[in-house]
Structure formats: structure tokens, C-alpha cells
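Quick board copy: two proteins, each given as sequence then C-alpha cells.
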Amino acid sequence: MKIVRHRLHLHDNDPCEYRKSPCHGGKMTPRLLVIHFTAGASAESSINWFLNPQAKASAHLVIDRNGHITQMVPFDTVAWHAGASRWNDLSGLNHHSIGIELDNAGRLQPHGDQWRSWFGRDYHDDEVLVARHKHETEPSGWQLYTREQIETTLEVAQCLFARYGLEDIVGHEDIAPGRKSDPGPAFPMGALRARLLGRQEDSLPVMRTTTGLNIRSGPGVRHPLLPSGPLPQGVKLEVIDQDGDWRRVSVLEAVNGLSDLEGWVHGRYLEPVEA
């Protein structure tokens, strides 16, 4: 990927799909990258909303669940994605940041033996992470992101950081706490930040198990269980890699007398540990 005249170009040097939103401001110099979820039914429905002048909302990019990218505002132009917001010495983050929207239903509510979005679509357990948001006290259901979305987001972010010298990557929840909850606990923000900013191992995201949890030699149930046995509920660990819904972890506590334990667990049964 590369950026030409503040437009994203893909590996074949062609610009990505561009659908210009009328909801934008003037020129700006970006300092941050802000990640959002759309909380919508599809990428197309969110794009159509950003094309509506009455929406008074937009983003620089929308990334579909299959990794397809649509650009809607040039990167040197204010998009209306942040609203009332603050980060360190900056306020009004629309004027200082690039916004990426990921197609994701966001928070889900229990509905029988499934989960339901605010717009009435049902989701199976294997599409959902049950976790407590870092600004909340009770767990909720959250739609998982796809591997394609995470990989595309990282690649785009690396391109943006290199081109604009961005200072950090944050969530909407970080710049508008209490008002916004996206991208939520299902998004591996700590791992992406570590990759983008070259953080050392002590900055890797720390999680804890929400239940007794099998740990395996690889990402998936086809891989054998580790001889340590299951991880107890509440064990702290660092996430060091991701493969779809699975997380490669380094366990920070001894389990059944074993230390320096490393393996793969399903990300649905992890929740963030506050710093």
C-alpha cells in the first residue's frame, strides 16, 4: 500500500474504492489514528449513511468484514468521526486525527441461546466475545472482528504512520470515555499499538481468563492441549499474537506448578486487565 495525494493506493498501485462523503471540514494535519466500529448492519449501510448530508458524520476509511477498503475523505481533510473528544493536549479530535470505521455490530444483547444487535440481527456464540469493557463493570457481548479486518487495519495503519508520522493509535472509547464504547474489547488495540509503536514486551496487552480455559499448541481445536492442563479462571496473561479468534499468549502466573507457559487460547474467554 501507499498514499498518493492523500488517497490510499493498494498493492497493484490502483487507488482503493473512493466514495466521497459530503460530510467533511477543511484541511488538517493528522496526529492520531482513531479506530471505530460502525454498529451497523453492513459496511454498505454505513457507507450510505456517510454519503447522506443529513448524517453529519463520516470517516476517512470504512473496512468491510472481508477486508475491503472504501475511502470517503482524503487523509489531509477533516472527517466528522470523533465528535466531542480529547486526548492528552488535544481536543476536538476531528481536526487532528484520521478515522477508520470497521464494519462490526458492536455491543450485543442475549436473546434466547443467541445474541441480538440493536438492529435485530442474531449472532451465534462463536461470533461473540463476552467481556467487560474497560470503562464498565459488567460484561457484555461484542461481535468479534474478522482476521481480514485486523490484518487490513494493521497494514493501513502502518502505511499511515509512515506517511504522516502519527503519534498514536486510539479507540473512540479512549477519546470520548463514557460517551463511546468502540471499538470495544473484541478489538486487539494493545497488540496493534505494540506493532505500530515498537513497544517492548512489557507493553503487550494483559488479559485475564473469564473461565477455566484450555490452552493448546496452535490456533484451533485441531491442535493438542498443552500438558499443563486448563488455565484457571482469573489467570493473567499477555497476548503476543493473533490468528482469527485465537490468541497466542504468555501466561504470567504458574499453572499447576509450571511457569513460562506459552500457547493458544480462544479470545472469546479473555477480558482486558486495567493498567
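And the next:
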Amino acid sequence: MENKTQRVSEIKSIALVAHDKKKEELVDWAYRFRESLKGHQLYATGTTGAILEKRIQLPVRKLVSGPLGGDQQIGAMITENKLDLLVFFLDPMQSQPHDPDIKALLRIAAVWNIPFACNQSTAEFVISSPLMSRDHERLVPDYEQYLLSRPIE
């Protein structure tokens, strides 16, 4: 499949999501990296957004709760090129009632080549990258060409 480049602004749109038992860890991480997050557009699902906004004192656009469709909202933002980074602290020890939604979100992040941090260590690497503070280009598959090349059934 062919690729094309997509411009990513120096002001990133970042989704911050966490499973219930990882919310405190995400909030602590965001507090530690508050200065790095400042100036970027932050999004979060459900109560995570309210907790984050109160603790880090930065504006957070709040979506619906993950199990109620917040994961799909984030996935839609990715497909519409409205999201540049997904930070989703997963709880690998707990099954989630909306696991299919989570898997779909992770698949969409991979399909559109969005950086995705699933734990604190990865999130620290990503937020510390020089690319966080400047615009750059990322490669994405050229799905338009792929769709045009498919025979009509």
C-alpha cells in the first residue's frame, strides 16, 4: 500500500484515557508532565476528564465514558485526523466490559499510525520526544488510493 504524509502541528491533540484501576496513575503522570501538556489540546473520556482537569488545572475536553461510547468518539477523531496522540493506561490484569471497543480503538490507532502509549514508561518516552514541541510529518497509508483500486462489486 502507498503512503502519504500528514502534517502534525506543534500543538498536539492528545487523548488521555485510563481504565478504572489506572486512573490515579494517569492523573499522577499528567500532573508530573503538566508543563509538557500545557499548550496542547487535551481530551479525555468520562470521569477521567473531570479528575484530570481538577488536578492538573488545564482545560480538558470531556467525552462520554468509555463504556458508553467514549472509545468510539476517540476512534472517530483519529479517523478524521483530529487526534495526534493516544495515551491510554490499560489495566492488563482486569477484564473490561467494553473490551471489543478498546480493541477497536487500538486497531484504529494502528491503522492511522497514531502514537499510542499504553503505560507510564511509554508515555514518558513520547511526551519527552522533541517532536512533541514542533510540527512534523508522519506517514499514513493512502487509503483513498486503496479504495479507488478496489473493483466495484
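Board note added afterward: The chain is about 40% helix and 20% strand.
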